[in-house]
Fold Flavodoxin-like domain-containing protein.
Amino acid sequence: MAGILVAYHSRTGHTRRAAERFAALVGADLTEIRPRAPERYRGAIGLVRAAWGARRARPCAIEPMEAPIERYELVVVATPIWAGHVTPPVRAFLKANRDRLADYATLYTHGGGQSEAGEDMARLCDRSPRAVVDLRNREEGTPAYDDKLAAFVRELAVAPPG
């Protein structure tokens, strides 16, 4: 089995940057969870659709994954939190791949507020994640943000590359 895969979905770039940062810290592979119709989530109307789909727990059609998920010891699923829930693309990814995940952890990005994303993920995977990191968008680029990522790495007991 290979090491770590970071599978992420990002609408605005916050989650993509967090996923890239984490992957660089631990030498993980990176793959994007892409909706088949990304234009549905663009702009103000797209934001409303995104929140509505997340709140209603509706998955959406996603592009086939490029990475062979079952070959990884750990998959870190990185998702923004929309309306307190995981995104429809991440929901679709987990429904399609939960039996192929040897182990998983979660990386959330959000603007703040209450969330049921943790419960969503555990329910979709039929088990709790190995570790969780919760990153606020407004903390991006601050020492607090870096400290949270470092603690996540320690919790996963992953040695940095090199």
